[in-house]
TrEMBL record:
Keywords: Membrane, Methyltransferase, Mitochondrion, Mitochondrion inner membrane, S-adenosyl-L-methionine, Transferase, Ubiquinone biosynthesis. One of its GO terms (molecular function) is 2-methoxy-6-polyprenyl-1,4-benzoquinol methyltransferase activity. The lineage of its organism: Eukaryota, Fungi, Dikarya, Basidiomycota, Agaricomycotina. This is 2-methoxy-6-polyprenyl-1,4-benzoquinol methylase, mitochondrial. The chain holds residues 60 to 340 of 340 of the full protein. It comes from Kwoniella newhampshirensis. GO terms for cellular component: extrinsic component of mitochondrial inner membrane. The gene is COQ5. Methyltransferase required for the conversion of 2-polyprenyl-6-methoxy-1,4-benzoquinol (DDMQH2) to 2-polyprenyl-3-methyl-6-methoxy-1,4-benzoquinol (DMQH2).
Amino acid sequence: THFGFKEVPEEEKETLVGGVFSSVASSYDLMNDSMSLGIHRLWKDSFVSTMVPRLPPSLHQNPSALTDPTASSTSSTFKCLDVAGGTGDIALRILDRAREKFACRDIEVEIVDLNQGMLNEGRKRVAKTLYYNTPQITFTHGNAQSLPTHIQDNSIDLYTIAFGIRNCTSLPAVLSEAYRVLKPGGKIGVLEFGKVSNPLFREVYRQYSFSFIPIMGKILAGDADSYQYLVESIERFPSQPEFAKLVQEAGFQTGQMKEGKGGAWTDFTGGIATMWTGVKA
Ligand code: SAM
């Protein structure tokens, strides 16, 4: 069976996505590493250092936050929402960067994900870190397209979504929810598979995706269909300028309609992955 989204009624899509991620949750990290040859780690590192270039000076002036991570939730706390945050890959990178680079623990990340299996894997992972049982990291079951109601309008400093938005039924719904919860001046960062620009490299990548990935999925996770679905969802996702246009249409200010410095997006590894950024005016 194929998980071809085009033939599936709208209401069933979310159930289907839930199923796909349930069947891969426990092997998720291993699969990411083997399929991207570990390169997804570099993409995520670059993404997080772009999205958290520094932390506002006020955060450094709160000495209690450095010694007592529970002295949090003050008005100066930097609030991040990592949607489709799954196993905590992005959230942990954000917190590590804040702590290691800026000696800042006055920052919180709430992970929102549609799949309980992924959230549980994330919880297990966090239990092995120094953020365990602190307000710095929390897990919420919820949908990117209509965020849980406790997340209020204009309340978030940084919204991230990595390799999650392509599974959502309505990209505009996700982006307008992000816009709604962000504070004015707050930033959005979307990391997702892009389109490879070089025609030769594109062909090599296509061969790799359609043959190697489902086979690896079968061998490592015993599940070729889920990985076939992942490959197809990558193909269906809009191109870099198309998605940048959606970001703008949701109300965000972006760079110019081009790749790279001053542009609305940045390609990694020839466009296999792409980061789009925007600011709420
Ligand atoms: N962000 C993590 C990373 O980069 O490693 C996880 C990415 S994983 C490929 C995609 C995640 O998106 C899964 O955990 C899945 O449950 C979640 N997801 C899919 N559709 C969603 C939706 N509508 N709302 C929230 N999460 C969703």
